[in-house]
Request: fold
Amino acid sequence: MRRRRLPISKPRAQARLARPGPHAAGTGVTECMALWRWGLKHGAMAAEDHAKSARRVGFSVLPTHADAMKTTPLQTYFLGQGAILLGAWGMDTFASMWPMALGASAGMMCTAPLVRQLLGRWRARRAR
Reply:
């Protein structure tokens, strides 16, 4: 024998339809988190496009990682040079080789993006 389903009460049905999304106010999930989840589902480029279109429409969206981290290889190179100078100052102040070693290794790591960019330009010019 088949069971008969009782009709759902009207307030309960309306509550089911009006369930807030992940970015609704008061749910505890920020818009940034909602964009992150959306990006996991649809890919990184789609999430970035979604954030840009949301900004164009006028929604308040937190800046993406790509927006926040736009440093050029030359800026990174100069940051590395600053680390070398800071290491030299630390070597003189503390009479230890450790600050200079750390500054020099940081300077070398910060030089790598500039070298990669220059090699990429050279390869592109050579391929023409």
About this structure: Residues 23 and 31 are 5 Å apart (CA to CA).
